[in-house]
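Technical annex B. To support the medicinal chemistry partners, we prepared a structural model of the target in complex with nicotinamide-adenine-dinucleotide, based solely on the information shown next.
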Amino acid sequence: MTDLITRVDAHAGRITLNRPDALNALTYQMCLDIEAALDGFEADPAITLILIDAAGDKAFCAGGDIAEMYRTAKAGNFEYGRQFWTDEYRLNAKLATSPKPIVSFLQGFTMGGGVGVGCHGSHRIVGESSKIAMPECGIGLVPDVGGSLILANAPGRVGEYLGTTTARMTAADAIWVGFADTFIPEDQWDAVKTALCDTGDVGLIAGFAADPGPAPLAAKLDDINRHFAGVTLPDILRSLSFEDTDFTRDALRRLRGPSPLAMAAAVELIHRNRGQTDIAKALDMEYRYTFRSASDGEFIEGIRALIIDKDKSPKWHHDLHDNMAMDAYKMLRPLGKDALDLSQPNAATGDGTMKIGFCGLGNMGAPMAANLAAAGHQVTGFDPATPCPDGVTAAKSAADAATGADVVITMLPNGDIARAVAADVLAAMPPGSVLLDCSTIDVESARAIAAMARAKSIGALDAPVSGGVGGAAGGTLTFMVGGDGAAFETAKPLFDIMGQKAVHCGDAGNGQAAKICNNMILGATMIATCEAFALADKLGLDRQSMFDVVSTSSGYSWTMNAYCPAPGVGPTSPADNDYQPGFAADLMLKDLRLSQQAAKAVNADTPMGAAAQDLYAQFVEQEDGAGKDFSAMLPRFEKRDRT
Ligand code: NAD
């Protein structure tokens, strides 16, 4: 019996998973064969739709067949698994982007690898027996096969809930969450399949659709949103442990099983993918984790406990309540030359390699340039004061670095320097290339640089970043981008390497506008958080209690929950490292000044921003704030009284 049956049936190309005794678990060979069939059906003009189903009534596909992955990884061969995932993810991307309609019939279990085959097509049909889940955290992996993208775009915080608890969805749930489209009673599936093959018309599916009834998950939405909205896994656990209800007890019970590290990374992954539509990007991020899952993670232990020894007692690296944010970030760091390559296995590599000039190799620029070089781009750097990082070739001047470049990136201290360097590099750049300024500078300078570039038929983007030195090193920066759309498209692959998100905010200067508005909020919020801690001290309220309450109440903020200014409280932050920056108070002062300069130019009333600017100016220029993290406002307030 073959594990996969493929054939042409009138207007349909058909793929049937045929391992019913193994719940149709997906072997490596099945992945490759499905892809080959798909390629053939897409190329055949006589085929108008592709139909995917599975033999037996217990499962469409209960996951990937991971026994061989376990065996090879246990013997120290991590390449087999990495190649399996690469080929499987390429299949997932093809299913999600196929030019032809793909109809899948998902009876019984559809889990993990099964979701990757059955839940990316255009018409996903569920019935009474359907049970869909992303249970990867249970074996020390994160939700993958593109499932993190579906979870990220689920209603409210349902993605975080399903990704961490590994809970199963009913048919109605799956439609509500976004894993399926249509409920059709299973006794009609044969008739639907015959009609689809005979006519090649997916429009007829609507005629068979029935009401799946209410989605049990939807009834829990308020609870899910309330408890799963935290920035990190510990935020979620804290929120759940503050309330004693059926929902919180059940959720906490479920969270005790899976790998804490995988759940922490899953939360981060879902946050990073929220609002994305590009499956390639989600797969790239998932692969960062799966690539490392056997060598640095807990995949081997997860499979041992659940599938090989079946003792269901995995020895995870972390306790559930550990703060493992840094370890989770490490698992999601970019892979450089090992990054997921979705191009055909034998396609020539090297396509898309760019020649990049990089000016300004300081705290931020050096790691950004190093990440681009590690990803295979040809990077030439210039900085009058600092040496080039590994992989970057040194140039004698900014103009030298820019000569013949496809893209020139600048990461400089201020607007005057950015204007001067722009004049130098634009003279050397070819028409059609792109100048990408990632420095934080004034809106006016950004617009002046864009005008200079336009006059030479060179694209220009102002793309300041959020994420600091850690984000630059880890390739997790957020870019706020102003400038024309074509230049944005050219720079997109570079944003994907240097960061996790790039938002195109409109015309030239709008990236800087977004940045200074964001940082005006950040500065004012940090001050409010610090003065509230200092007040709480004087009122006799201990800091941990203050954190426990505020981090789950309406005073919640990024400065409290993710970057708590009180040492020993909340996640690890610069406060725990004697206020070494992080994000320096000097830089916050710079950004607040830019915000007030911009506010003045357009006559906007920004009293909170102005007060924050004055306080940071006093702290940095008259007190001892220079060189400290911007959260060192807390010890400052602590020492002061009202006079
Ligand atoms: P930095 O001072 O460490 O680096 C700036 C670099 O520019 C220096 O190495 C300097 O020698 C170089 N430089 C100056 N003139 C030059 C010229 N003419 N040609 C080439 N190089 C030149 O500063 P940084 O922390 O890397 O910050 C860079 C930019 O990023 C700033 O605009 C800053 O506001 C912004 N930023 C910084 C952070 C952070 O946490 N450090 C976070 C977000 C944004």
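Notes passed to the chemistry partners:
The two ends are 85 Å apart (CA to CA).
Residues 359-365, 382-386, 398, 411-413, 417, 421, 439-440, 465, 468-469, 583, 587, 590 surround nicotinamide-adenine-dinucleotide (CB under 6 Å).
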